[in-house]
Specification:
The complex is a heterodimer of chains A (410) and B (310).
Chain A (H helix, E strand, L loop, with lengths): L1 H31 L6 E9 L6 H21 L5 E9 L4 H13 L3 E5 L4 H14 L2 E4 L6 H4 L15 E3 L4 H15 L4 E6 L3 H16 L3 E7 L8 H10 L3 E5 L2 H13 L6 E3 L6 H5 L9 E5 L7 H13 L9 H20 L9 H9 L3 E4 L2 E4 L10 E8 L2 E9 L3
Parallel strand pairs in A: 1-2, 1-3, 3-4, 4-5, 6-7, 6-8, 8-9, 9-10
Antiparallel strand pairs in A: 10-13, 11-12, 13-14
Helix pairs in contact in A: 2-12, 3-4, 6-7, 8-9, 12-13
Chain B lengths: L3 H29 L6 H18 L6 H28 L8 H21 L7 E2 L8 E4 L2 E3 L1 H23 L1 H11 L1 H6 L4 H27 L1 E2 L3 H16 L4 H21 L15 H15 L14
Antiparallel strand pairs in B: 1-4, 2-3
The chains are: A alpha/beta (410), B mainly alpha (310).
């Protein structure tokens, strides 16, 4: 009895799989001889669309969607229509890997924008590399993703040539933060907290090294656990350590709570973090004032760049429900980079996509160069952005206000 | 060690919160031997109910007046959901094998989270909750108690006292004890056991709503996922204290809270243990404590040795 049902199950699954493959090949066939009809290509998006980081994820999805719509409207690539398929990774690495496999399985996907989290990216890179599918992250900042695990020792080796990013790495960000905190803000004793994640722990370590090198003192360290909410014991450790500032490597849900709970102990010290806390939710999610807290972010403030004005207008005009958030500009640029690569590939092949379009897109991505929302968009030999502009933001009057923008060179 | 009083206060406040939520696990387990894993979400719904009640109040209402209204509002929501869960999800499975209601509870927990995420306005990320403002009460140089901590430290013992009197003295409370001891005999004696079971769910939910308000005024924000980790910790507290015993829930909560706070502050000061201290390891130490306690006293701190409850 048991065997028979197993047999039936296997039969059903095999039939289903065969049917699906048949469908797939038919689709491919009809695309080749489509003639006058536009070829539809898909830009995949992977980001946390639900959960506590959804504010950032929705901004990424909408911005890529805007890039695709703009390309279709302007007929950017003649004969090709862009569509966006957005998948939710909930900031969970395993979900990211499953999504990557799904996107690879969709033959129409020529490039992927995402993910938000460096930890998720680690699980996706291999999947995309073996399928030769290009991936452009608007937000990953962990150096190892593009420069190999031994980047800290000065050995740079690009692990996956399908991986690109429009965000600058934590090396740039962490050092910039340390220099600002030590030189501009005049803080000498810092307490470092991280969330044990790929992004947070990496950023905190780079910051600490640079801060010590400058002559500052690390008076204490601690770690918090993601999704926990009571950090009062850590906050009291900060207070009794006599630190004059706190550096937090992590994301805004924990960062906001930690900043509040530190201030509640009566320790009047600013908390500084990376782009992970640079979100309105860091300030608005609680009643406690975050005045004076700091964050760094890649690029000049989107609102202040001439190139970004059109993006902001268009984003408003589309009437998206969620704001473009911290990574909107980079996501638009990432999406646009994929579109430009597709354009180059199509132009080299009489306006049609060749059979090995994915590999060609990867190749073309390395050569794209255009004025994007966040400045000049181009990738170096590791797939990292050549844009090394950074901005320090400060909470003033319940809002993130930019206080210093500079080009990082070192 | 000069910050010891402060860390003890932190641990006590956190533990009192765990204890309030743990009541819900322990009451339900004591009577129907069901681990209601959806209880964390009942807590979360209590928080959103309280927030809704606050939104209905005229703006500018001071928090001291608003809090009772918020507790009532939160309790109405959480009790309603808990009773509905009992009636439609658990009661049909009461005679089913034990795993069935357990899996149902886990499924219900996910479903409730997603419902709030989907339908409560702006609940896709953390939403602000009214918060106590004003400075902490400075008791000594090294001890300052936050207003919200004081709130939960006063409220939790009061609630426990009320529950203790209710269970010991009132008719319904005694019926509850009887049902916990032997449901079949209790039924024969004319006790409406269905009503008693609903009552256990309702009391647990009301305590969860109180906890949710205490949590909200402390952290200044609530979110749809907050019930998961807190529920897990509260369940641990209930087991630590001896599941089925209401005082055990509170004792377990306080012990767990203190263990977490003290391990964050002091483990790393022990020579050679520097790597194993701090916030990263607090959960590990809390569970090490749980395992040690269960090795020595498998029934938990205040639990009674029962040969077979099933």
């Amino acid at each position: 009895m048991r065997h028979r049902s197993l047999l039936i199950l296997t039969t059903v699954i095999t039939t289903g799989a065969l049917t699906l493959t048949a469908c797939g090949s038919r689709d491919g066939g009809s695309k080749d001889n489509s003639g006058g009809k536009k070829t539809v290509v898909v830009i995949g998006v992977d980001a946390p669309l639900t959960g506590s980081l959804s504010a950032l994820g929705q901004g990424i999805k909408n911005s890529v969607d805007l890039a695709a719509k703009t390309a279709n409207k302007n007929n950017e690539v003649p004969g090709i229509e862009f569509k966006v398929e957005a998948l939710d990774d909930q900031a969970v690495p395993a979900s990211g890997q499953a999504n990557a496999t799904k996107l690879v399985g969709n033959k129409d996907v020529v490039g992927v924008v995402g993910p938000l989290n460096s930890g998720v990216a680690q699980q996706m890179q291999g999947v995309f590399a073996s399928a030769k599918l290009a991936q452009v992250s608007p937000a990953n900042t962990n150096p190892a993703l593009s420069q190999g695990d031994n980047w800290g020792k000065g050995e740079f080796k690009r692990p996956f040539d399908t991986y690109f990013r429009t965000a600058a790495t934590d090396v740039v960000q962490g050092k910039f933060a340390a220099q600002y905190l030590f030189k501009d803000a005049g803080k000498k004793k810092v307490f470092v907290v991280d969330d044990k994640q790929t992004y947070g722990a990496g950023l905190a370590a780079i910051f600490s090294d640079e801060f010590k090198k400058l002559g500052g003192e690390i008076v204490g360290t601690d770690h918090v656990t993601v999704k926990e909410t009571d950090f009062s014991s850590t906050a009291d450790k900060v207070k009794s350590s006599g630190a004059d500032s706190v550096y937090f490597g992590g994301q805004y849900p924990e960062g906001g709570l930690l900043a509040d709970q530190i201030k509640k102990t009566g320790a009047n010290v600013p908390l500084m973090g990376g782009d992970g806390i640079q979100d309105p939710a860091f300030i608005s999610a609680s009643g406690e004032a975050n005045e004076g807290d700091l964050s760094t972010s890649i690029g000049y403030p989107v609102e202040k760049l001439d190139t970004a004005k059109k993006f902001i207008e268009d984003y408003k005009a589309e009437g998206y429900k969620d704001p473009y958030a911290a990574y909107g500009g980079y996501s638009y640029d990432a999406g646009w980079a994929v579109i430009q690569a597709v354009k180059a590939v199509a132009a080299a092949n009489n306006g049609k996509l060749p059979d090995d379009a994915r590999a060609k897109v990867v190749e073309a991505l390395g050569k794209v160069s255009f004025e994007g929302v966040t400045g000049k968009v181009a990738f170096d030999q590791y797939g990292d952005t050549t844009n090394k502009q950074l901005t320090v933001y400060k909470v003033e009057g319940g809002k993130w206000v930019d206080v210093k923008s500079d080009t990082f060179n070192q | 060690m000069h910050e010891l009083p402060q860390q003890l206060a932190n641990g006590l406040a956190l533990g009192a919160l765990y204890g309030l939520i743990a009541i819900g696990y322990t009451m339900v387990y004591g009577i129907v031997q069901l681990i209601n894993f959806a209880h964390g979400e009942i807590f979360m719904i209590g928080g959103f109910g309280a927030l809704t009640a606050y939104a209905i109040l005229p703006t500018g209402t001071t928090l001291l007046i608003a809090i009772p209204v918020m507790i009532v509002g939160g309790a109405i929501c959480s009790v309603a959901v808990a009773c509905a869960a009992e009636r439609f999800a658990y009661r049909p499975l009461r005679s089913a094998p034990r795993l069935a209601p357990l899996i149902t509870a886990i499924g219900l927990s996910i479903a409730l989270q997603q419902l709030v995420w989907q339908f409560y306005p702006d609940a896709k990320k953390a939403v602000s909750f009214p918060e106590f403002t004003g400075p902490a009460f400075k008791i000594t140089e090294s001890l300052a108690i936050q207003r919200a901590d004081l709130f939960v430290l006063i409220l939790a013992p009061l609630c426990m006292l009320a529950l203790g009197v209710f269970v010991q003295k009132s008719r319904s409370g005694r019926a509850m004890q009887a049902t916990a001891q032997d449901p079949d005999t209790a039924k024969l004696m004319g006790i409406n056991t269905d009503r008693i079971i609903v009552m256990a769910f309702a009391i647990g939910a009301a305590f969860a709503a109180v906890a949710a308000v205490a949590y909200g005024v402390d952290k200044g924000q609530i979110n749809f996922e907050m019930g998961f980790i807190l529920g897990l910790k509260a369940f641990t507290a209930a087991v630590l204290g001896g599941i089925g015993n209401i005082y055990g829930a509170m004792v377990g909560g306080v012990v767990l809270g203190l263990a977490e706070a003290l391990s964050i502050a002091y483990i790393e000061e022990i020579p050679g243990m520097q790597q194993l201290g701090g916030g990263a390891w607090s959960n590990v130490w809390a569970f090490v404590l749980l395992i040690v306690v269960l090795l020595v006293r498998p029934q938990g701190l205040l639990g009674q040795r029962v040969t077979d409850r099933a």
